[in-house]
Amino acid sequence: MGLTVHIATDGDLPAIAAIIERAVTGLQGNFLSQSEIEASRRFMGVDTQLVRDATYFCAVIDDRIAGCGGWSWRRTLFGGDGAGDLIDPSPLDPASEPARIRAMYTHPDYVRRGIGRAILTAAEDAARTAGFREIDLMSTLAGEPLYRRCGYRAIGERVHYADVPLIPMRKQL
């Protein structure tokens, strides 16, 4: 398989955008209605701040980016560049606040190959190194099984953003 993980660069952005589109369209169909998938496009997308912060990763198989995702030391919990009111770039305090897992996507041709787990491991290790003791994420229904297998637990009731159901989750690092 030859899976490697590297920190994303600006040169990876076109491939990242294509993976996000394929993942949103191709992997949520068993969990969301077509209107919910369309609504998710309002806030799911590339977050270039993560790339600038060097906290975003690409998983590569056979010289092809197969997945992407990362973590953040900023307050934004979820949402890409176009998510407007969701974006808060102010820093978190690692001594008292959890880091964030952000923008996890796998190309549909590469699901169930360890890509999500590899990216989560890289992100958790980096957040731990930065001094964080906990990490939060906002899961889609499609992502919840992976996060549960990786030790994340729901920390509240489902919420809806733009009519899309999401699950707040946390893990101790």
Automatic annotation (TrEMBL):
One Gene Ontology MF term: acyltransferase activity, transferring groups other than amino-acyl groups
Keyword set, alphabetical order: Acyltransferase, Transferase
Keyword check for Acyltransferase: yes
Signal peptide positions (record): none
Transmembrane segments: none
Matching InterPro entries: Acyl_CoA_acyltransferase, Bact_Acetyltransf, GNAT_dom
Residue ranges of coiled coil: none
Gene3D superfamilies: 3.40.630.30
Residue span, N-acetyltransferase domain: 3-173
Domain of life per record: Bacteria
Name of the protein: GNAT family N-acetyltransferase
Organism for this UniProt entry: Erythrobacter ramosus
Lineage of origin: Bacteria, Pseudomonadati, Pseudomonadota, Alphaproteobacteria, Sphingomonadales
